[in-house]
Every structure is written in C-alpha cells, then in structure tokens.
Specification:
Helix content: 40-55%
Distance between the termini: 145 Å
Shape: elongated
Strand content: 5-15%
Number of helices: 9
Mean pLDDT: 76
Number of strands: 2
CATH class of one domain: Mainly Alpha
Radius of gyration: 40 Å
CATH superfamily of one domain: Winged helix-like DNA-binding domain superfamily/Winged helix DNA-binding domain
Largest sheet: 2 strands, antiparallel
Order of helices and strands: HHHHHHEEHHH
Low-confidence stretches: 215-222
C-alpha cells in the first residue's frame, strides 16, 4: 500500500529558491544538477595510529604486594608527631616519611617525584598531592629550581614546622637514606671479648704470651 508524501511549505519554498538561483559558474551548476559525474577518490584515507585510541595506562609497581606492605609500614611509622598524623592519609604519611628521612640525614630532600613514589610504594600523583597539601598546611617549604632552556632540576624540600623538627631530632627515622648501610648492632660485652681474643691471637703468632706491661718492667730492671 503506497503512502502519499505531503511536502511542507518550508520545503516547497526551499525548492523554489534553488530553481530560481542564478548560477555564476556553469560547471558548479552542472555538478549540482548531476550532468557531470564526480570522480572517485584516488587517494586512500590516512591510517589512524592505534596508540591514539588506546587509553593511557598508568605505570604500576611490578610487585604490588611489596609496595602495599611498604606503604603500610612507612605510613604507620613515627615519622610524624601525633598532632600532625591526622592531616594525612596512609599513603601521604608514607611519602612524608621518605621526605623526613632524607631531610634528617642530608638536611634537604632533593629526590625526584618518581623516586619518592617508588620508595613509598605509592603513585606519583599521591606524591604531588602530598607535597601541595603539606605546603598548604605550612609543614614544608618547596624551592623550585628552573633552568632556562633545559629540564628543571628537582625541587628542594625542607621542613618548616618547628614541632616536626623537634620530633625528628628525638626519634630515629623509619626510612633508610639513599647510599647508607644498616649499622650492625653489637653489645659492648661481646665487643670486649672479641678484642681480647684478637689480642691473644696476635700474641700467639708473635711467640710471646706474657702481658705487655710485665715485659716492659722486666726490661727496665735488667
């Protein structure tokens, strides 16, 4: 069953305008009326790179379990006084623990953002958010080091909170500074015994088991 099509007055007016339009170019008029066929496209479309269509993946730790344990250990440490801990989350406290450890041992923290994130077990966005929040609260001072025509140097972070400075002086740092070695704890009693054994071994190799003071006094009397 065929249906009749009723054109609207606007469509009829548009058709009349097209019929009465004066063409300035005969070639353009022939193209629109279909008298001259158009040529097929000779050039192929430029291929779109697949990387633009793939969403950007954020870098992740190769061992997420180790990063999570490290973040929890540093975040629960005593790097911050009790009056400042409630301002930050666990990940932010881990970041400030790294910063505080560097400042305690080197006087200033000049580590890059990616390095702090790897040591704290967080992402670089958490490090940036922590730095901005700590600076807003007046706990740290960030000194930027731009270099004209080249990549800027890493920022210098120092602690401005008097309470935090006093806290770091009293207690040890949970963060092991870069390039340091873990000290070997030896009791004073064992250390004296080891030194005594070394002296006895040295005397045995020399062939003289007499105490040094007695040997000197015997030489004076002779």
């Amino acid at each position: 069953m065929s249906r009749t099509f009723t054109a609207s007055p606007e469509l009829l007016a548009s058709l009349e305008r097209m019929k009465s339009r004066a063409w300035r170019d005969d070639r353009a008029k022939a193209f629109e009326l279909g008298e001259i066929p158009t040529k097929p496209a000779t050039t192929t479309a430029r291929p779109v790179r697949a990387s633009r269509l793939v969403s950007r993946q954020r870098p992740r730790s190769p061992d997420r379990q180790y990063s999570r344990d490290r973040r929890r250990r540093l975040g629960g440490s005593s790097a911050l006084p009790d009056t400042m801990r409630h301002f930050y989350t666990e990940g932010q406290r881990a970041v400030l623990c790294i910063v505080a450890g560097e400042i305690k041992h080197h006087g200033v923290c000049d580590l890059p953002i990616d390095k702090i994130a790897a040591l704290a077990g967080v992402c670089r966005t958490t490090v940036q958010t922590t730095m901005h929040e700590a600076r807003r609260l007046g706990h740290i001072k960030i000194t930027e080091r731009p270099v004209r025509g080249r990549k800027s140097l890493t920022n210098l972070v120092t602690i401005t909170s008097v309470e935090w400075k006093a806290w770091l002086k009293r207690g040890p740092s949970a963060h092991r500074p870069i390039g340091s070695k873990t000290p070997k704890m030896v009791s004073s009693t064992n250390s004296k015994e080891i030194q005594k054994e070394r002296r006895n071994d040295r005397r045995g190799r020399d062939g003289d088991n007499s105490p040094p003071m007695r040997r000197i006094s015997a030489g004076k009397s002779g």
